[in-house]
Design brief:
Blueprint: H1 3-7, H2 13-26, H3 32-48, H4 52-72, E1 80-84, H5 94-108, E2 112-115, H6 121-128, E3 134-139, E4 157-160, H7 163-172, E5 176-179, H8 184-198, E6 207-210, H9 217-230, E7 244-246, H10 249-259, E8 263-269, E9 272-277, H11 283-292, E10 297-305, H12 309-314, E11 322-327, H13 332-343
Parallel strand pairs: 1-2, 1-5, 2-3, 3-4, 5-6, 6-7
Antiparallel strand pairs: 8-9, 9-11, 10-11
Length: 345
């Protein structure tokens, strides 16, 4: 048993014994330590909090997450793209048509589509997706956000009470982000997505700002970001590598596909950043990476690596080649730039 799990107890023999008995009855040896801690936390909540509101919040959040994981788990091997945009966009608007076309072309290439489930740009995303290739994560609001009629499989419609659980699932279960013009909600979701990648709380991913024909929405936004955030030092100029403006559906689809052309995934293990690749890069490219991106290393060099012990224990993509480096865990814009260089090999 892991020391942290063993030390995390109620401290009452009878209750701790019942928790252990229940965990043993579940019979999942791979996750028993985590299950024990979850049950222990639940009991601690019951003993420490008499606030019904606190317990309702935890209960609802846990139920929403559990159900979401159940729905998404059979599709974890399939790449998914989340579409954010205005719920108020009309069906004849440029962004609606662009979202529908974008979703259709991605689903034809094997991607699944995830939307917020409402009208407008979200509706267009579900409409364009192939049958059975989309999800909708709807938020229950007293106005505006009713599920759209283009969600083919109702079990893939998940209704959330809380924005924070919905956002967590958006990030956890998708591999790329497309932002269309929208209001406060769209900008909130976009800024949060960028911030999570910028701080390393989310894996590197393509974040595409979809600029419909005749629109200056993202051009105006980018001017603000460059002149007020980057120029004044509120963000690093390299953070601009986290985002990309696409003025056509084909350009956006290509940008997303290119991000995963060679790069597969990343894992941080014992101070190392391990990049799993679909094929090994050439010696020439590896030499160039060490020259161009040595500024993001704390020591050593970028090197070919076998799976780490932790990856072997967990059976994570053991057949894939790898690059490992002592990444500074800070310059994620540069890391995304490096991934794009790897994809050009």
């Amino acid at each position: 048993m892991e020391k942290a799990a063993k030390d995390y107890e109620i401290g009452e023999q009878a209750i701790d014994g019942l928790i252990n008995e229940l965990v043993n009855k579940i019979g999942n040896t791979e996750t028993e330590n985590l299950l024990r801690q979850i049950l222990t936390t639940t009991v601690k909540l019951g003993k420490e909090s008499g606030d019904r509101g606190d317990l309702k919040l935890v209960n609802n959040a846990l139920k929403e997450l559990r159900y979401s994981f159940k729905i998404f788990s059979p599709y974890r091997a399939v790449k998914k793209v989340i579409i954010f945009g205005s719920a108020r966009s009309k069906s004849k608007s440029a962004e609606y048509k662009m979202s529908e076309d974008f979703s259709r072309k991605l689903s034809e290439k094997g991607y699944m589509i995830v939307t917020g489930g409402g009208p407008g740009v979200m509706e267009a995303g579900n409409k364009g997706a192939g049958s059975g290739k989309d999800f909708a994560l709807n938020i229950r609001l007293p106005f505006e956000q009713k599920p759209n009629p283009y969600i083919d499989e109702k079990e893939k419609l998940i209704n959330f009470k809380y924005f924070f659980t919905r956002k967590l699932v958006f990030v956890k279960e998708t591999d790329a982000t497309a932002l269309f013009p929208g209001g406060f909600g769209t900008l909130d979701e976009g800024f949060e997505m960028i911030t999570l990648v910028q701080t390393g709380k989310s894996r590197p991913r393509p974040i595409v700002l979809m600029e419909p024909k005749g629109s200056a929405y993202w051009a105006t936004w980018m001017h603000f970001v460059k002149s007020q955030l980057a120029k004044k030092g509120f963000i690093k100029k390299d953070d601009l590598h986290l985002i990309h403006v696409a003025k056509s559906v084909d350009a956006a689809v290509k940008y997303i596909e290119d991000f995963y052309r060679v790069y597969h995934s990343i894992r941080y293990v014992a101070g190392l950043a391990v990049l799993r690749l679909k094929r090994q890069v050439s010696g020439k490219t590896l030499k160039m990476l060490n020259k161009e991106f040595k500024d993001i290393l704390t020591s050593g060099e970028i090197r070919v690596s076998p799976p780490t012990v932790k990856e072997i224990q967990e059976g994570e993509f053991l057949n894939l080649p790898r690059l490992a480096m002592n990444f500074n865990m800070r310059d994620y814009g540069r890391l995304c730039e490096m991934i794009r260089v790897i994809n050009r090999d």
